[in-house]
């Protein structure tokens, strides 16, 4: 089928981790002619395969699975322990314990093996570039391989490794910055980054970050993108698995902007500015996924309690576009003009 045959409408659903991505959301995007995605970065191999089965049960169209490329365990254990001590009162206030802060790779090799044994149409990677041998194995199994990039240098490395297409993520994107290394904040606007990457590689490009309406999608397609990737726009859809606390915050006038922070996960990510972010931003160590696991029970308790000021409210700069509408309608509106 090839990359260009995977969708009728040039809209790709972002594989939003943390529960927002669901089989139903992927199916709704597919129903409107886009390309649905299932986020499996944190999933255990058996949960990933169960999610794939569930997605196949609700759509007969191609869809993708996204994985996180594990980095090295270079975190400062003392800094992680100090951060745990700092945020312990936050967890206690919510009646939660802090999670274990151990490093692990989320069973990355086992998930790769499962995807070569039972392939899906697309496999995407974030936080790095997999080994060329792994890319070749997935392609031999019949999968198209996408890699998220945030610089022209990352784009060249991904193209040389054998990626079929690149997700070019601008600074406007919500959630984690998909950079290969979290050494500095990515601040290049998507339109500028798209031009830089186009000049560096010949690989098809998917534009991602802050695309909130048909006009924004048209700009990116006119600038050379093959498709656009939407994430935040789908968060309030009924098919989204985002918590109700998160969904409500996106429309709450009390939240007036976004910022990039390590406070919730130890890796730079863009979310709505709330009390937790303001209080702990700039203090959390660069320790991913250690801090992510450390704060996990705290964040889950905040979602259950409806405490939006203690929750990771991942959102791109176009978050006001998120509407309480079926995902298929959102894609259809874009399809009518792009």
From TrEMBL:
Record bears the keyword Oxidoreductase: yes
Record-linked Gene3D superfamilies: Aldolase class I
GO terms assigned for molecular function: monooxygenase activity
Catalysed reactions, as listed in the record: 3 propionate 3-nitronate + 3 O2 + H2O = 3 3-oxopropanoate + 2 nitrate + nitrite + H2O2 + 3 H(+)
Keyword Cell inner membrane on entry: no
Cofactor(s) listed: FMN
Keywords from the UniProt entry: Detoxification, Flavoprotein, FMN, Monooxygenase, Oxidoreductase
Pfam families with a match to the protein in the record: NMO
Family: Belongs to the nitronate monooxygenase family. NMO class I subfamily.
PANTHER family recorded: NITRONATE MONOOXYGENASE-RELATED
Protein name: Propionate 3-nitronate monooxygenase
Taxonomic classification: Bacteria, Bacillati, Actinomycetota, Actinomycetes, Streptosporangiales
């Amino acid at each position: 089928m090839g990359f260009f045959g995977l969708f009728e409408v040039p809209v790709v659903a972002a594989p939003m981790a943390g529960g927002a991505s669901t089989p139903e959301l992927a199916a709704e995007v597919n129903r409107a002619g886009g390309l649905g995605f299932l986020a499996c970065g944190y999933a255990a191999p058996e949960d990933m395969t169960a999610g794939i089965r569930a997605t196949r049960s609700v759509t007969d169209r191609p869809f993708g699975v996204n994985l996180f490329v594990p980095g090295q365990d270079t975190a400062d254990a003392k800094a992680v322990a100090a951060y745990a001590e700092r945020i312990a009162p936050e967890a206690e206030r919510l009646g939660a314990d802090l999670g274990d802060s151990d490093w692990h790779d989320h069973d990355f090799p086992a998930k790769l093996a499962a995807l070569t044994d039972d392939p899906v149409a697309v496999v995407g990677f974030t936080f790095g570039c997999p080994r060329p041998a792994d890319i070749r194995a997935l392609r031999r199994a019949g999968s198209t391989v996408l890699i998220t990039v945030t610089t022209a240098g990352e784009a060249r490395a991904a193209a040389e490794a054998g990626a079929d297409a690149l997700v070019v993520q601008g600074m406007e994107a919500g959630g984690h910055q998909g950079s290969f290394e979290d050494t500095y904040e990515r601040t290049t606007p998507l339109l500028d980054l798209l031009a830089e990457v186009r000049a560096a590689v010949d690989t098809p490009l998917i534009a991602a970050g802050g695309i909130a309406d048909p006009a924004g999608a048209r700009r990116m397609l006119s600038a050379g993108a093959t498709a656009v990737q939407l994430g935040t726009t789908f968060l309030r859809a009924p098919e989204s698995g985002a918590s109700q606390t998160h969904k409500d915050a996106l429309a709450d006038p009390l939240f007036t902007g976004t910022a990039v922070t390590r406070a919730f996960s130890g890796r730079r990510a863009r979310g709505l500015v709330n009390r937790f972010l303001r209080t702990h931003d700039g203090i959390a160590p660069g320790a991913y996924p250690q801090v992510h696991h450390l704060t996990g029970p705290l964040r889950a308790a905040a979602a259950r309690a409806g405490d939006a000021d203690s929750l990771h409210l991942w959102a791109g700069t176009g978050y006001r576009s998120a509407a309480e509408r079926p995902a298929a309608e959102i894609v259809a509106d874009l399809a009518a003009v792009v």
